[in-house]
Design a protein that fits this description.
The chain is of the alpha+beta class. The chain is built from 24 helices and 19 strands.
Length: about 675
């Protein structure tokens, strides 16, 4: 295996670092530019100086010797400029940057600062390359002002070639972090730190608040048996996912662990559990720069989000350089990386995710001065996601990998945090055998039907018909998977990939949170299973509402298929949410179990449709495809969208869910929010 980039020409990198640091140190005393531009570059040079101090603080070992107060002060200093109370006058805010620096180049200079902030993880991970390339980016942009304010296009060219030139080493590093256990920056913190001393939270370089500290301290007080129960549920769910999916976990050697800071005690036990299965952890940081992607939704490990609006404002920064050649460049670099690590990719098992919930709901502001993809770039973004997803599946085969997801609350959920935490542990460890039996009763009834009719009540305007696959043998085949606590913890749903033709109607929810974003009066109309129209009531202008949905639910696609229809059965979770008033804070992982839900995008069996799957009763689940996913047999790029967003109708908005047979018989399963099908009475006890 080749050495990593920081091992190449280390002396040369060190020399570049020292020269760049010296040069940025001179900016404040120079008169290359004046006014707002002088202020901007002086501020950027000060940030670089702060990062150099942070680098030395870590390199010298002072990070591990500092007391809690010093660590907190340094951590706050790194992030204070983008905190909500300071963001209005931060050059990371596109509105402020454009107002101060001009319509022409304000966006570009705002991007540069956002990219410089990628030096924070670089300093803690001691990645000299990541430090140097960002310092040199700043200096190249600064030098462009030597003969006056430069043209916008000249600055865009600097950005373009910065991304193009360094994408190869950045893609290689990211794939390595995904696949190689020896990239163990976070693993060492988890396994070697004194977890009873919360100072360890500051070793990552992530933003740390009282929430992460309180979470870590709460888990310190939780009994060892409870920690094992939490970890066992999580790791067993991962193992069972392979078993249920008819996949061989024995051929896998690595598992990607994703979590939020504060959960290290559980993660440590999970690492031990996975090791017993023969799996080593890969743990990588959530994206923090243009190469990794920056978004409100975090993939990897992460600390507190200093300002979700900052992430939202910069999610489309690629608009500054995105074109067809850049897409091809990114795909080429990605293939090179996967080809280099193809043996490691073949034994990668997939992600094991610990989600959090309870944070204050985020309602983003739509800023006109933030970067936005034009129509052509949106199509290119869709093309890139499609091709990169297909490429990843070549090396990490969908029919061989699996995953699991579990969720826990954080202190922001309210005063009864500890009580709610204990309640969620109970929900995550419900008797799956009981649910398995009840859900089988529902499945047996659904399998008699030609289609399902779902209708809302009260203010909910849902009225949709969902077509089911035709079963050739009721004794051997089924449409619905009996989902208990495996890949999606907790227990509580039966799901299918519906037929698209004939699936028509309106899906409506009065209020829902998808990927940490709020949607008010979300409505989606389907025609033959494809999204036809959509709207919400978040913004005053319909145009903004539609763009909000297209960007964050359709992921820039013009339409998406209905990839999943499911019935959630976890009434215990629903009642707990009502009891504590946390309905709006539940993650989709739990919320989807609290009513019927519909997913737009790929099916639940995406990239693994040809793997034969059986329910516990021995029947084969034949509804693994729809008319779109079947296109994979000719062209996989037409079959997959690499997204899957669940939209749930809560029980108290549900008027009817009935299955209709070919003979026209209607069999109600839920009426006015209660299960009325015989054999499901236990589910109503929670109410």
């Amino acid at each position: 295996m080749q050495k990593f980039i920081d091992d190449y020409d280390r002396d040369l990198l060190q020399e570049r670092y020292e020269l760049a640091l010296m040069r940025t140190g001179q900016i404040a005393d120079e008169d290359i530019c004046d006014g707002a531009f002088k202020d901007y570059f002086t501020a950027m040079a000060a940030f670089v100086a702060l990062m150099a101090q942070t680098w030395d603080f870590v390199a010298d070992g002072r990070l591990y010797e500092a007391d809690l107060d010093e660590l907190q002060n340094k951590n706050h200093k790194l992030y204070e400029d983008i905190l909500p109370e300071n963001y209005d006058k931060s050059y990371a805010n596109p509105d402020y940057a454009v107002d101060r620096l001009g319509e022409s180049i304000g966006q570009i200079l705002c991007f540069v600062y956002a990219e410089l902030r990628g030096m924070i993880p670089a300093a803690y991970e001691q990645s000299l390359t990541d430090m140097v390339i960002r310092m040199e980016l700043l200096l190249e942009v600064y030098q462009a002002f030597a003969e006056g304010v430069p043209e916008k296009e000249s600055l865009k060219q600097i950005i373009y070639w910065y991304v193009s030139d360094y994408y190869e080493i950045q893609a290689r590093e990211r794939v390595a972090q995904q696949l190689l256990p020896e990239k163990d920056f976070a693993s060492k913190i988890v396994m070697e730190s004194n977890l009873s001393d919360v100072r360890y939270l500051y070793y990552y370089g992530e933003y740390v608040t009282e929430s992460e500290i309180r979470t870590a301290r709460h888990l310190t007080r939780v009994s060892e048996s409870t920690i094992r129960l939490m970890a066992d549920t999580y790791t067993e769910g991962y193992r069972i996912g392979f078993e249920v999916g008819n996949k061989d976990i024995k051929i896998k050697k690595t598992v990607n662990i994703r979590y939020c800071l504060g959960f290290e005690r559980m993660i440590r036990q999970a690492v031990i559990n996975f090791d017993r299965m023969g799996l080593k952890p890969t743990i990588y940081r959530a994206g923090s720069n243009i190469f990794q992607g920056r978004n409100v939704n975090k993939t990897g490990y992460f600390g507190a989000d200093p300002n979700k609006q900052f992430d939202y404002d910069h999610k489309d920064d690629q608009a500054l350089f995105m074109d067809g050649a850049m897409v091809e460049r990114k795909l080429e670099c990605m293939r090179q990386a996967y080809e280099e690590f193809k043996n490691e990719a073949a034994v990668f098992g997939g992600p094991a995710v610990v989600e959090i919930f309870g944070e204050r709901p985020f309602v983003p502001q739509s800023k006109k001065k933030a970067c936005k993809l034009n129509d052509k770039q949106q199509k290119l973004a869709v093309e890139y996601v499609s091709k990169s997803g297909a490429m990843q599946n070549e090396y990490i085969k969908g029919e061989e990998r699996s995953f699991t997801i579990i969720a826990f609350p954080v202190p922001d959920i309210g005063e009864k945090y500890e009580e709610i935490f204990d309640e969620i542990i109970k929900i995550n460890t419900l008797d799956y055998k009981l649910y398995q039996r009840i859900q089988q009763t529902i499945i047996d009834t659904l399998d008699k039907g030609e289609y399902v009719h779902v209708r809302g009540m009260g203010k909910n305007r849902t009225d949709i018909k969902v077509m089911l696959h035709e079963l050739k043998s009721l004794e051997k085949e089924t449409n619905f998977e009996n989902c208990v606590a495996d890949v999606n913890i907790p227990v509580g749903e039966v799901f299918t990939s519906p037929l698209l033709k004939g699936t028509d109607g309106i899906l409506h929810v009065t209020r829902v949170f998808l990927g940490e974003l709020e949607y008010r009066d979300l409505s989606v109309e389907f025609k033959d299973g494809m999204v036809k129209e959509y709207n919400c009531a978040n913004f005053a202008k319909e145009e903004e509402n539609k763009k909000y949905i297209k960007d964050n639910v359709l992921y820039h696609h013009d339409t998406l298929p209905l990839g999943e229809f499911a019935i959630g059965t976890n009434t215990t979770a629903y009642v707990a949410a009502r009891k504590y008033g946390i309905e709006d804070k539940l993650p989709i992982l739990i919320a989807e179990k609290t009513g019927p839900h519909f997913a737009v995008g790929d099916t639940c069996y995406s990239h693994a449709e040809d793997v034969t799957v059986y329910n516990p009763d021995g029947k084969e689940i034949i509804a693994r495809d729809n008319e779109v996913s079947l296109l994979r047999k000719k062209n996989s790029e037409e079959a997959y969208f690499n997204c899957h967003t669940d939209i749930t109708i809560p029980y108290d908005e549900l008027g009817e869910l009935s299955v209709f047979t070919k003979e026209g018989e209607s069999i109600p399963i839920i009426l006015e929010g209660k299960f009325v099908l015989k054999g499901c009475e236990t589910l109503n006890e929670a109410f």
